[in-house]
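Researcher: Sequence recovery benchmark, item below. Answer with residues only.
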């Protein structure tokens, strides 16, 4: 981890402490302490298991993709990859640092750079697709609730959805209309040329063209491996499902046994969209606010609401970051990188 990343990590931890402190400003701390004492440990353990399974299923997806072409990845290395991703997602705006960090981690494990890029590309496409599919389903169930209770937040949710949908549409355009997409990008870059130097403009154009061409060539190969994509899609579905279930178990731990599991899960999907809008690493501030507003109707008092938000944030954000710090210091395996192929006698 670079010095800059270490500084950002310290800053984000301090920001989190400040946000928690700000959230507690009008809350009876004695009541919060009583709520903590009376937490249902069993349900909290279930919430903890959910975030572990979320990371675990991503490890499975990574291992399946890496080994689909004959490479070998130990379970230790497979588990290390998503943990490192969580750390750098949490340190960069819009989670932009997760992909490069995974690429480096896979190459440290002995996976060739082009092959590692292909694995991450397939995983990214599947993940984004499942996020959009889950959102559409959740929108049908939970959007009316947002419209009735907190109409202003519904626009943030829809805007977040549009961003994720635009990513998927862009990827599909590259996959199926490669030449048209490159011409469209050239048109988009025309006005940009007026606001930057020629050297920087040419550098951006070359970089974008290389990325588009690389994605297109990889997508051609992806389309021939539809069975693998279906398998990884199923794994990713369960990965996201366990993540989306976390608030439900937190509410149960706080004694709210009357909540609807489908509604709570769908609302958490919508929060995921809100978080993606905030450029601050981890969506700090926006994530806590979105959770508090959306789930205020499910919690009996302000102290439990703040506690629920803090527990949720600790599990879904800080747990992955701290686990990623430990993963960074674990040395990857570089031996027996190629799987043995069985031959029939």
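Model:
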């Amino acid at each position: 981890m670079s010095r800059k990343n270490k500084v950002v990590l310290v800053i984000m931890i301090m920001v989190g402490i400040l946000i928690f402190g700000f959230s507690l400003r009008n809350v009876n701390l004695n009541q919060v302490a009583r709520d903590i004492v009376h937490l249902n440990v069993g349900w909290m353990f279930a919430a903890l298991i959910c975030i572990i399974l979320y990371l675990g299923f991503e490890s499975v997806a990574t291992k399946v993709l890496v080994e689909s072409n004959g490479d070998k990845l130990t379970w230790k290395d497979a588990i290390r990859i998503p943990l490192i991703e969580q750390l750098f997602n949490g340190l960069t705006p819009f989670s932009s640092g997760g992909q490069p960090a995974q690429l480096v981690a896979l190459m440290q494990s002995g996976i060739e750079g082009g092959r590692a890029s292909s694995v991450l590309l397939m995983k990214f496409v599947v993940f984004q697709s499942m996020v959009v599919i889950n959102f559409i389903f959740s929108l049908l169930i939970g959007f009316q609730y947002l419209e009735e209770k907190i109409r202003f937040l519904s626009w943030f949710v829809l805007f977040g959805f549009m961003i994720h949908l635009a990513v998927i549409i862009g990827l599909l355009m590259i996959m199926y209309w490669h030449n048209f997409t490159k011409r469209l990008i050239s048109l988009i870059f025309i006005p940009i040329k007026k606001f930057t130097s020629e050297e920087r403009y040419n550098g951006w154009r070359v970089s974008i063209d290389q990325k588009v061409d690389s994605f297109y060539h990889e997508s051609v190969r992806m389309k021939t491996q539809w069975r693998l994509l279906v398998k990884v899609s199923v794994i990713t579905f369960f990965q996201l499902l366990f993540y989306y279930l976390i608030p439900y178990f937190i509410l149960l731990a706080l004694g709210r046994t009357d909540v609807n599991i489908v509604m709570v899960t769908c609302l958490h999907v919508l929060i995921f969209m809100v978080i993606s809008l905030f450029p601050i690493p981890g969506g700090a501030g926006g994530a806590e606010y979105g959770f508090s507003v959306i789930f205020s109707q499910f919690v009996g008092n302000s102290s439990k609401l703040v506690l629920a938000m803090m527990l949720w944030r600790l599990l879904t954000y800080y747990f992955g970051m701290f686990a990623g710090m430990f993963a960074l210091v674990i040395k990857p395996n570089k031996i027996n990188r190629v799987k043995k192929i069985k031959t029939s006698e």
